[in-house]
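[Q] Does anyone have a clean structure-token version of this?
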Amino acid sequence: MGSKNKLKRFRENEKFENVVQPSREEIVEGAYPLKGNWNKDFFKNENPIVLELGCGKGEYSVALAMQHPNKNFIGIDIKGARFWRGAKTALEEELNNVGFIRTQIELVDLLFEEGEVDEIWITFPDPQIKYKRTKHRLTNTEFLKKYKRILKSGGMVNLKTDSEFMHGYTLGLLHGEGHEIIQANHDVYKNEYSPKEVTGIQTFYEKQYLEQGKPITYIQFKIK
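[A] Here you go.
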């Protein structure tokens, strides 16, 4: 994407009513006004809140919002020029139950109050295979602690990935730490029990992975 195109998208994001772009300072200082008030001030309803972490182009958040009009969806990514597409589609489709936050995922527990979130989706994250990158792996112990803080009691986490490494790493960690695994699936398109949210939505990159013959894996779990 050219720099002119990126700048155009950044400018449009600033005008989109379904996009928020808080500064890091605002979040870290604990002064972010939407924390604890997402239902009241952003969505203006009391429906359950579902996050998609590392939402990319926002395709999954938008598709889930279409499937579930009685839930609120928030896509989070640092790359605003990417999720511009999802935000624009949501506005065009008049979807009032989906929004986007431009920030780092490591700040997620400072954006939401304890128990404010009902469910989390992690879709095709970078597996961060190198050992020195483990702190950035979105299912590591530190991230799971952050998710637990903001999730309601019994709240679910969903991991959908093309990475066998990420699938295996996460399963091992969940078993080792005693978390509750609801489903673990090594190939969602060969399993009749795969939820429609998993097989019924395919992102741009997922279609590429399937063309390459990569199996798509899925884990659903609760953090103890």
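[Q] Thanks! Anything notable?
[A] The domain at 3-222 is CATH 3.40.50.150 (Rossmann fold).
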